[in-house]
Amino acid sequence: MKASKPAPIRRRATGRARMLLSAQEEQNQNLARELHDVVSQKLAALAMEIDTLRLNPPRSRRELGRRLERLSANVAHLGNTMHEISRQLHPAILDDLGLREALHGECLAFSDLYGNPVTFVAEQVPESLPPAIALHVFRIAQESLRNAGKHARSSPVSIRLSGANGTIMLNIQDQGPGFDARKGRGRGLGLLSIKERAKLLHGTLRLHSQPGKGTTVTLRVPLKGDRGR
């Protein structure tokens, strides 16, 4: 009796999981690099500026006030940078206020970072969602926005989050250059991460794009049963 071969679906699932982990690891590496290259350098610069102020204090109160004001602005900017990195690692607002407010905050942060005008609409979204569903939907939206920021230049982006008939639906549309989806041209590990998160939710993900006609990502997730585990 011949030994049975491993089921192809298991091999495919293992490969997809490996690629998703690679995508997550790439994102973590980027955050670690930002912590090292941006935050640590800014902290070192602040320490030097404070030390200089201590060793060579200005003679006039006006000059002292000006330098302290500059220090305060630099500290505030560093605090914003740390908040942004923390938000990317795990959005605390998602736990505190829910998916609707978390996505609204993400849209504001995206617009500030990339300059794209964003329209956000939320309709009939359940007040309480399973944590895994909320997190994966948020990450899909976050990665879609990141792709739009990279490829859609400063074109408008619209996001709609809605709930109906036991499902949650997310639609993200940009008016960027688009690409030929029929040729299988993707956007790297970010797009792979989006697809794998949708599968973890037992959801359906549709990507529509054409050259010169922008890109639309549509996610539909059932709210019943075990999802995202």
Write a structural description.
This protein has 229 residues and is of the alpha+beta class. The chain folds into 2 domains: 8-89; 95-222, Histidine kinase-like ATPase, C-terminal domain (Heat Shock Protein 90), CATH 3.30.565.10. It is built from 6 helices and 5 strands. The chain has helices at 8-55, 61-89, 92-97, 99-114, 131-151, 189-200, and strands at 118-123, 157-164, 167-174, 204-209, 215-222. It has a 5-stranded mixed beta sheet with strand order 1-2-3-5-4, covered by helices on one side. A hairpin with a 2-residue loop joins strand 2 and strand 3 (167-174). Helix 1 (8-55) packs antiparallel against helix 2 (61-89), helix 1 (8-55) packs across helix 6 (189-200) and helix 5 runs antiparallel to helix 6 (189-200). The longest helix is centred in the first third of the chain and has 48 residues, at 8-55. The two termini are 37 Å apart. Mean pLDDT is 79; it is low at 1-13.
